[in-house]
C-alpha cells in the first residue's frame, strides 16, 4: 500500500487551524507517530500496485520548500529514507524547474516566495524520485471545479441564488473561468476566493477551501492509488472526503486496532526499532495490516465478532506463545482460516451446535452398516467418505471450542482430548461402537462447561 503524507501539507493543515511551521512539542511528536502509522500501513498488500511500485510513503517535492523544519523531520525519518520507503514526487524530474514554477504561482505570497527562495536542493539527494506525470494537481483541480459548476451543485446554487438570481448564467460563466482568470497563480483558496464575485458566509468559505484541497488530493489518488491518514489529533484532514471514498484510513481506527491486538507499543518504538521489527516479522505484519485494512474497508455485522474472537484468542496466549506480533498474526490467521468464518462468517455457540448436528448427520446415512463380531458385540462400519467428513467436522469443533470465551484453558484441553480420541477411533479400519460410546459419554460429562450436552446425547443415541 502507498501512503501520501497529508499531515505536512501547509494548506490542508491551515484548514484545520494548524500552522505546520509552528508545530512544537506533542504536535511534532504526533507528526512522527503518524509517520509510523504510514510505515506500518505500507506492509499491507491491499492496493498500491497499480503503477508498478508499492509500499511507499509519498511526499510532494513542494514540502521540501514549504516546511521550515523539513531538515529536522528528514533526520528523524532517515532510516525510512535509507530503506527507500520515502519518495518525493513532482510533475518533472527537474526540481529546479518545478521550484521556479512554484515561485511564479506564489508570487503574491511573500512568505511562501521567501521559503522557495531558500529551497535546499541537497535535501532530496538521498530520496527516490517518483514521477507524477499523468494527473497534475492543477489539471485535476480545474476539471473538478468546472464539473461542480456545470452540475449546478447545491453548494453553488444556494450561493448564487442568495446573491443575484437574475444573473445566474452570467455568474456561472465567471465562476467557470476562474481557474484561468487568476493568471497562473496556485489554485488555492487564498488566490481563488478573491476572484469569486459572490458573498459567502464563513461556513461556505470553509467548504470552498476544503473542496480545493480535496481536488488536490485526488490528483495523487488518481496517479498513485494511495491513501491518506485521517481522523488524527489535528482533525479529520480528509478535506470533507466527498470524493475520496476508500482513499482514506483512520488513525484512530489503526490505533484502536493495534490496541485490540496488544500491539500499541509499536507506536512507542523509535522508527529504527520499528523498522527492525517489521523486517523480522514482515509476513506477520502483512497478515495483521491486511486484516485491519480489509475490515476497515468492508465493515459488516461480523466485524465486531471477529475482533472479539481474535482478542479472546490473544488473551489465551498459551496457545501460541512467542512474540506478541506472531501471536496477533496467528490469532488473525486462525479466525480467517476457520471453516465456520469462511462459510458462515460467524462464531458462536449456535454454530458449534450446527457442527455437532453435522457430525450426527454423517452417521445417519443408509450406507452405515452393523455386523456381528465373534463375541456377538456390535461393531460399526463407516464409509471412508463419512470418516473424512466426520473428522473434518470434529477438527472444526475443536477450534470453535478453543475460541469460546466461556471455556477455560483447562476445560478446552479436556474437551480437545476427548475430540482427539474420538477422531482416532473414527480413523481406525473399523470402529468399535462401545469405544465410540465411551468417548461420547465422556464428552457429555463436560456439557455443563461447553453447553452442548443435548446434542452430544443425540450423537450417542445414533450408536445405540
Characterization of this structure:
By secondary structure, the protein is an alpha/beta fold. The protein is built from 25 helices and nine strands. Helix 16 crosses helix 18, helix 20 runs antiparallel to helix 21 and helix 21 runs antiparallel to helix 22. The longest helix is centred in the middle third of the chain and has 23 residues. The two termini are 58 Å apart.
Quick description:
This protein is 58% helix and 7% strand. It is α/β, with parallel strands linked by helices and 464 residues long.
Features:
alpha/beta, 4-stranded parallel β-sheet, 9 strands, 58% helix
Number of strands: 9
What characterizes the major β-sheet? Answer: 4 strands, parallel
Q: So what's the overall shape?
A: elongated
Q: Round the Cα radius of gyration to an integer and report it.
A: 31 Å
N/C terminus separation:
58 Å
Beta percentage is 5-15%
Number of helices: 25
Mean pLDDT rating: 80
Helix content: 55-70%
The parts where pLDDT drops under 50 for at least 5 residues are 48-52, 342-380, 452-464
Largest sheet strand order: 1-2-3-4
Q: Structural class, from helix and strand content?
A: alpha/beta
Amino acid at each position: 500500500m502507498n501512503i501520501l503524507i497529508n499531515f505536512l501539507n501547509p494548506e490542508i493543515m491551515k484548514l484545520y487551524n494548524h500552522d505546520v511551521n509552528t508545530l512544537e512539542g506533542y504536535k511534532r511528536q504526533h507528526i512522527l507517530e503518524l509517520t509510523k502509522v504510514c510505515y506500518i500501513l505500507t506492509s499491507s498488500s491491499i492496493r498500491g500496485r497499480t503503477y508498478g511500485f508499492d509500499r511507499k510513503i509519498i511526499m510532494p517535492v513542494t514540502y521540501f520548500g514549504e516546511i521550515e523544519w523539513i531538515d529536522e523531520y528528514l533526520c528523524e525519518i532517515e532510516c525510512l529514507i535509507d530503506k527507500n520507503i520515502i519518495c518525493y514526487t513532482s510533475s518533472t524530474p527537474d526540481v529546479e524547474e518545478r521550484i521556479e514554477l512554484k515561485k511564479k504561482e506564489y508570487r503574491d505570497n511573500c512568505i511562501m516566495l521567501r521559503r522557495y527562495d531558500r529551497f535546499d536542493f541537497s535535501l532530496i539527494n538521498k530520496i527516490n524520485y517518483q514521477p507524477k506525470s499523468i494527473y497534475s494537481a492543477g489539471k485535476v483541480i480545474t476539471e473538478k471545479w468546472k464539473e461542480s459548476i456545470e452540475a449546478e451543485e447545491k453548494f453553488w446554487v444556494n450561493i448564487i441564488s442568495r446573491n443575484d438570481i437574475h444573473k445566474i448564467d452570467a455568474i456561472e460563466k465567471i465562476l467557470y473561468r476562474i481557474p484561468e482568470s487568476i493568471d497562473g497563480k496556485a489554485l488555492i483558496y487564498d488566490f481563488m476566493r478573491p476572484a469569486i464575485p459572490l458573498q459567502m458566509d464563513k461556513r461556505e468559505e470553509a467548504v470552498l477551501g476544503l473542496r480545493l484541497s480535496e481536488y488536490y488530493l485526488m490528483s495523487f489518488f488518481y496517479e498513485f492509488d494511495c491513501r491518506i491518514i485521517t481522523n488524527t489529533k489535528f482533525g479529520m484532514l480528509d478535506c470533507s472526503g466527498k470524493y475520496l471514498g476508500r482513499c482514506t484510513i483512520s488513525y484512530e481506527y489503526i490505533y484502536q486496532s493495534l490496541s485490540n491486538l496488544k500491539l500499541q507499543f509499536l507506536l512507542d518504538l523509535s522508527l529504527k526499532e520499528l523498522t527492525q521489527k517489521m523486517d523480522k516479522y514482515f509476513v506477520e505484519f502483512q497478515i495483521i495490516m491486511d486484516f485491519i485494512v480489509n475490515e476497515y474497508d468492508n465493515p459488516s455485522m461480523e466485524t465486531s465478532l471477529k475482533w472479539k474472537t481474535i482478542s479472546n484468542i490473544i488473551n489465551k496466549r498459551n496457545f501460541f506463545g512467542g512474540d506478541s506480533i506472531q501471536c496477533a498474526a496467528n490469532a488473525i490467521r486462525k479466525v480467517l482460516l476457520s471453516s465456520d468464518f469462511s462459510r458462515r462468517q460467524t462464531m458462536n455457540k449456535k454454530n458449534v451446535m450446527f457442527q455437532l448436528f453435522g457430525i450426527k448427520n454423517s452417521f445417519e446415512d443408509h450406507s452405515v452398516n452393523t455386523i456381528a463380531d465373534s463375541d456377538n458385540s456390535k461393531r460399526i462400519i463407516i464409509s471412508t467418505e463419512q470418516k473424512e467428513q466426520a473428522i473434518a467436522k470434529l477438527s472444526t469443533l475443536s477450534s470453535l471450542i478453543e475460541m469460546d470465551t466461556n471455556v477455560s484453558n483447562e476445560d478446552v484441553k479436556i474437551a480437545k482430548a476427548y475430540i482427539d480420541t474420538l477422531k482416532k477411533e473414527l480413523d481406525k479400519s473399523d470402529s468399535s461402537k462401545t469405544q465410540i460410546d465411551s468417548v461420547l459419554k465422556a464428552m457429555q460429562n463436560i456439557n455443563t462447561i461447553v453447553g452442548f450436552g443435548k446434542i452430544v446425547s443425540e450423537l450417542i443415541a445414533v450408536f445405540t
